[in-house]
Amino acid sequence: MERSLTLIALFAALIAALGLIPKFTLGFGVPITAQTLGVMLCGTVLGARRGGLAVLLFIALVALGLPLLAGGRGGLGVFATPSTGFLIGWPVGAFVCGLIMERSRRLPVAWAAGIASVLGGIVVIYVFGVAGLMRALDKSALESLGLVTAFIPGDLIKAVLAGLITAGLARARPASLLSRG
C-alpha cells in the first residue's frame, strides 16, 4: 500500500515536471505540452488503477490551484477553457493505457506500451478533448475533430517514447513495471 501511494505521488510529480517544458498554445486555446507523455507513462508503467489514480491526484492538485499545468496554469479556471475536455480525459486515458498493458502480456513490452499509448493516451483523450472543444467553442464534432489533428504528430512521437521508456524500464528494473506484475 505504501509503495503504491509513493508511486502514485511520484508519477503525479512526473506529469508536473513535464509541464516545465514550455507550452505552445494553438490558436483555439489548447496548448501542446509534454504532459500527455506523463499520462501515457502512468498507465503503461503503473497499470490501470494506479495510473488513473496518479493522474487524478495531479488533476486534483491543479484544481486546488497549484500551477502545475504547462505555462504555470492551475486553479478551477482551467476547467472553463477549451482544454477542459482533454484534462478530464487524462485520468481515463491513463486507466485505458494501463488496462491494455495488463491485458496484453503476450506482446513485447515496447509494442504493448506503444499500442496502449495510442489507444488510451491519444484516442481516448481525443474523444474527451473533442467533446470539450464542441462545448467550449460551440463547434460541431467534425470541426472540433479537425482542430485536434494538429496534435497527432506530437502525440504519436510521445506514444513511441512511452513505449521505449516503458520497455527500457522493464529491462532495467522488471519489478517496477506494475502494469505487467
Automatic annotation (TrEMBL):
> So where does this one cross the membrane?
29-46, 53-70, 76-97, 109-133, 145-170
Listed A to Z, the keywords are: Cell membrane, Membrane, Transmembrane, Transmembrane helix, Transport
Q: Does the keyword Transmembrane apply?
A: yes
Source superkingdom: Bacteria
Q: Where in the cell is it found?
A: Cell membrane
The Swiss-Prot or TrEMBL record describes its family as follows: Belongs to the BioY family.
Name assigned to this protein? Biotin transporter
